[in-house]
Amino acid sequence: MSTIQLSNLLNIRINDVVLIARKAASTTMKCISSGLQISIKEDGSKVTNADLESNSIVTSGLSELTQDIPILSEESHSKFDINKLTDTFWCVDPLDGTNTMISYSNGNKERIGFTINIALVHKGKPIKGIVYYPTNDEVYYTGDDDKAYKMGADLSVKVINAVKASNQGPLKVAVRHKKENRPKQIAGREVEYIPEVGGKSMLSVANASSDVAWLNFKTSPWDIAAPHAILRAAGGDLINEDNGQDMDYTNTALTMEPAIGAHLDTLIELAYKK
User: Fold this and answer.
1) Beta strand 171-175 pairing with 212-215
2) What is the pLDDT of residue 177?
């Protein structure tokens, strides 16, 4: 698999971006502690002061870091020049999993799957990504060496790699907690369900905890770009489930089709990618 060396493209240190995400995560937890302010957006979804404050921190931080790179963010995408999608841009979900965060703030402390997602997209490919979990300061990211990493709250760091699925036994498939429309089989193989939240399904594959990430629903680019970048760095990929084509981050409708993610050899073995 050929990779784009970020050092040949932009003089960006990934740690600088991690620090931006960490600042946004800290502010998110402060908003939760002081009490969330919840409102409803035009599309009917919920947004909180934590979403908006995180968005302000991330977008201003990225603007200072790379003044010439536009930012596509869920909370401010109306200001984005859609014609920039074919070039280089930041793709941001300042708080992925708002409903999960609201549940956490209401006392359900097992609902920790909300994240700050930051990705750098170049010519339709997510080439750098950071997924930060505010509740436990766990962060997944692509390194300056184009490898995938996981860092814990104690700042311990390890390289993560996706692995090819075994030919024996069921496929371990990361799926949503909702039980509707889960695959009964994949390419004729029996499956074992591993419920995950949001982009964690791709991180589960990148971390060799699952064989396949099953995203059988439409999403937006900011939902998947960061974990997709990490999966690519770990030796996998995320592709269109129907046609096996690469996910299209130049899609001006800002809609990503249902997808399947796995180690590249697994995608080929299951006949999803040629």
Assistant:
1) parallel
2) 73
Distance from C-alpha of 269 to C-alpha of 164, rounded to nearest angstrom: 9
The answer to whether the Cα torsion of 212, 112, 90, 206 is positive or negative is: negative
**CB count, 10 Å around CB of 119?**
29
Burial 120-130 (b: 16+ CB within 10 A, else e): bbbeebbbbbb
Q: Which of 27, 14, 15, 89 is nearest to 55 (CA)?
A: 27
Q: Assign domain 171-269 to its CATH architecture.
A: 3-Layer(aba) Sandwich (3.40)
- Predicted local distance difference test score (pLDDT) of residue 10: 57
User: Domain ranges in the chain?
Assistant: 6-160, 171-269
User: Domain 6-160's class?
Assistant: alpha beta
Threshold 0.85, pTM exceeds: yes
Residue 187, phi-psi category: left (phi > 0), alpha (psi -120 to 50), beta (remainder):
left
Q: Any idea which residue has 């030919």 for tokens?
A: 167
pLDDT, tens only, 71-114: 999 999 988 999 989 889 999 999 999 999 999 999 999 899 99
Helix 98-105 to helix 14-34 angle (10° resolution) is 50
